[in-house]
Amino acid sequence: MSEKNKIFNKVKEWLLDYEFNISFEDENQKVLIIEKESNGIKNMILIVSDSILIMEQFLFEIKNPTETMYRTLLQKNRDIVHGAFVLDHSGRKVIFRDTLPTDNMAQNEVMASINSLGILVGEFNSEMIKMSK
Questions:
Q1: Domain that residue 108 falls in
Q2: pLDDT (tens digit, 9 = 90+) per residue, 30-82?
Q3: Residue 83 belongs to a domain with what CATH number?
Q4: How many Cα atoms occupy the beta-carbon half-sphere of 23 within 13 Å?
Q5: pTM above 0.70, yes or no
Q6: How many domains does the chain have?
Q7: Quick check: 97 and 84 in contact, CB under 8 A?
Q8: How far is CA 78 from CA 48, 74, 81, 84, 112, in A?
Q9: Burial 75-102 (b: 16+ CB within 10 A, else e)
């Protein structure tokens, strides 16, 4: 079994240990899509790359972007323990993204990154709703 396969299976096992629902799995591409709505996780994509685990979840689309909104997002990044807000190529879709190196990666690190999104959604929910209108 290749190293990428071992890491993929280990991450999948960790997610199941924490009762995440795996709604999509592609072992060949090393992609998982997970959900746990009680933690604010909905369609989070996890990709095992050559040396990193990539985690992304679409959060919202900015309908009427302003400089103030982008400044607010950048300032909020400072408060996020793991991961960050990123924008897609259009500059309107806001995504939560985090990456972890896969060598010596531990279960608590993966869960901390995922849980960071849950905390972010809880703390910043009203602002995200305003930006999406």
A1: 3-131
A2: 999 999 988 889 999 999 998 999 999 999 999 999 999 999 999 999 989 89
A3: 3.30.1460.10
A4: 10
A5: yes
A6: 1
A7: yes
A8: 26, 7, 8, 8, 16
A9: ebeeebebbbbeeeeeeeebbbbbbbeb
